[in-house]
Amino acid sequence: MKFILARLSFPISLICLCLLTYSSFAQKETVKASAFFEVDERVVFNANDIDRAYSIIPKNSSARVIGYADYAGDEAYNISLSEDRAQAVVDFLMERSDGRVNIISMEGMGELPQGNTTDADAKARRVDIIFEFEKVEKVSKEKPSKVIPPPPAPPKAPGVSEESFEIDTIVKENIVLKGLSFIGGRHFPTRESMPELYKLVETMKKYPKLEIEIQGHICCDYSQPDGIDNDTGEPILSKNRAQYVYEFLSRNGIDESRMTYVGLGSTQPKVFPEVSEEDQQTNRRVEIKIVNL
User: Would you say domain 175-292 falls under CATH 3.30.1330.60?
Assistant: First the structure.
């Protein structure tokens, strides 16, 4: 087994400010990413999740790399396969690191148990990368934490009647809000998405007995239950997006007793694995489940 060990050192700086307006403290942060492989593939992999992690982690982060294989093949073969996959990811990280990552360990764990579905087995053919770094936070002693304001929503034009979604009252398929997009890492929709929400309002008014469950979904990260909401710092991004839709409907006159909301994270992707931005956008969605009609 190929093994890489590197020493990681984190500089610690203490800064005293005369005005004592701010103090700082270091907090250890962990970010996980996964690279997914096709059957028996040792070198080529989907790096979308690594790209996501690279947009978050600072320079001089440490990384532990752990390779896996699915249940097919014997134990020795799968150990070798998982080691080669881990090495391929390490080579990829080192090539594009630019001082961002120090590899402290690499290991091939062999096969994972057989899953109940084809998707589950596909997720076993992966390499996990665990990034760790020290994050220095500033804490204000005099001012409350700055809250990122929501983007202003375009006003609804008076007298304009939005079209509604047509619902098959027999099949009762979920309503997918295809035109609804959110600002990356936040639970606020883009300005261009607001007509889709008004369209949902009109649908609720058109079908007065309609009861729904608002389901939030995210893309890209399959190593965590949900994504981080940059507005609140909470790891419940899909839930907060669904809650935004719930509160929007409530503000526009829809009875809250007709609605519930839930965040499903990345547990129900429509496309897996994701190999393009289009695949990611397909999975990054809000669906309306019809509970009663």
Answer: yes
Tokens coding 231:
């507005």
* pLDDT tier at 243, thresholds 50, 70, 90: very high
The pLDDT tens digits of the residues spanning 119-173 come to: 667 788 899 998 888 765 544 343 444 455 555 554 444 433 458 787 777 767 7
Between the alpha carbon of residue 202 and those of residues 32, 41, 210, 215, the distances in Å are: 41, 50, 12, 19
CATH topology of domain 22-140: 60s Ribosomal Protein L30; Chain: A; (3.30.1330)
- Tokens 């096969």, residue? 111
Q: Indicate where the chain has its CATH 3.30.1330.60 domain(s).
A: 22-140, 175-292
The DSSP-derived string for 241-273 is HHHHHHHHHHHTT--GGGEEEEE-TTSS-SSSS
CB atoms near residue 66 (< 10 Å): 19
CB 202 within 8 A of CB 208: no
Whole-angstrom Cα distance, residue 88 to residue 206?
A: 55
